[in-house]
Amino acid sequence: MSLRHALLGLLADGPASGYDLLGTFRTSLENVWPATQSQIYTDLTKLDAAGLIRIAAEGPRGRKTYEITDEGRAELRHWLLETAPEGYRRNDILLRVFLLGAVEPEEARGFLRTRAHSATTRLAALRSFDESMDWGGDPLSVYGRLTLEWGKRFMAMQAEWAEWAEKEVAALEATR
Amino acid sequence: MSLRHALLGLLADGPASGYDLLGTFRTSLENVWPATQSQIYTDLTKLDAAGLIRIAAEGPRGRKTYEITDEGRAELRHWLLETAPEGYRRNDILLRVFLLGAVEPEEARGFLRTRAHSATTRLAALRSFDESMDWGGDPLSVYGRLTLEWGKRFMAMQAEWAEWAEKEVAALEATR
DNA sequence: CCCTCCATGTAAGTCGTTACATGATTGT
DNA sequence: ACAATCATGTAACGACTTACATGGAGGG
């Protein structure tokens, strides 16, 4: 259901075509809510049929520019403020950790080391992206910055946790 | 694909029936990899057909106890150590934050306050769960403790971030 | 002229959820 | 007896992915 809401949210900021929206998903939303070209086009058609968006203009190469309707704005508002987010839910790293008893402790430690390393690398990438951006005062920039900050804090947390966890496994290994 | 691996991982620890596994998903794996009864039974059938598990015994009420096969262990090992985890990926809270420009700053702050509050509540629940458990030395306990610790750190991070973010929005509101 | 980018659409298949459907065993 | 719990299965539907398919427009 959420991709439809993501599309509504982006269109609330101004009219755009499926192609334009695809670009936004590939850049800004890649790490928050990935979507494929195929899904974007089918959901735009459905939102149009449901009356939540409408075709504002048609351009060259069959381009269709969509805009949000009043009904769409109402639905977006409802979803944003009156529905409970799921939050985290389903984490394939933690699932692996939970099942790590199936391999040797030394291998488990290797897994955790790799996690620490990859979180550190990602953190560095997010930091340099943050510094390269010149954040404007427009809504998408402001709230985009908040999500980026979340990403940085998340990666820092993950790296520290993985290092701690590796030591825990090492300590356990030593007592046997 | 991962539910199949979760089932393999649990069966690597010892034989169990679909019903037994359902219990584990409802308790230990609820916040890591939720699964429904329906999905567990269909995937057990598929794993059996693929030769990764087999029926070890049949009991009363049609109970089937499954056990992992050597092929299953090999597949589990491969998935655990040689495939790249996806990690975070898709967060409906962050998606909402990214789109928060569609509502009034005061409403956005309310959203963030609610996030902070709910993360704090969840953190408290995890803490008391942790204290109520007497963690044994068996593999599932050891690695289960590591995932719980992750949950605590995650909730603490989320609460702090949400409080920080609310202030950022407030500061922005003041400059207009 | 050709390559790149713009631009949209559909089909097949997997994964997951909700709901329906059934029945045996055990403890009180 | 009857309620709770044990125990499994299937059907329909929604969300998402991968792959296929097509064609126009603009720049060098």
UniProtKB/TrEMBL annotation, chains A, B:
Pfam families: PadR, Vir_act_alpha_C. Gene3D superfamilies: 6.10.140.190, Winged helix-like DNA-binding domain superfamily/Winged helix DNA-binding domain (1.10.10.10). Residues 7-77 form the Transcription regulator PadR N-terminal domain. Residues 90-168 form the Transcription regulator PadR C-terminal domain. This is PadR family transcriptional regulator. It comes from Streptomyces xanthii.
